[in-house]
Amino acid sequence: MSETLLLERVERFLAVLRHCQVLGISAHAADAKGLTLRLPYSEAIVGNPETGVIHGGAITTLMDTTCGISTLCVLPEFEICPTLDLRIDYMHPAEPHKDVFGFAECYRVTPNIIFTRGIAYQDDPEQPIAHVVGTFMRLGKSVGARTAEKGAGA
Fold first, then answer.
1. Domain 3-153: what homologous superfamily?
2. pTM of the model
3. Crossing angle for the helix pair 56-69 and 3-15, to the nearest 10 degrees
């Protein structure tokens, strides 16, 4: 699949996730190697008003979403793949007033499970805010098609 088509698929999926709309999460890049999403800095996601540091829950949401949607980079057709397990190791707080980027890749795909890993970073991917690993259950193409049909009719 071309990078343009993949990015369009990612943007369509993001558009139906209400939490992504509220947080302003957007697609930054997508290709066969992985997906990068952007979480814009906002006062609404600050965890500590005295320092302006972003709440860890917002970064967790970014990384769960990035890992989950990265499955689109490796699957030939759309499938719903809910989170089975997600582990995030925080290295240091995000700097205030800067966007956070989440990158994730799928490193193993089985008939039932997809294994992902990634990082959250700001200016430099070599200085990650957090590392993440996640597993996602494959529900199959038919579940995704039924869900898409219901969404289109709503």
1. Hotdog Thioesterase (3.10.129.10)
2. 0.88
3. 130
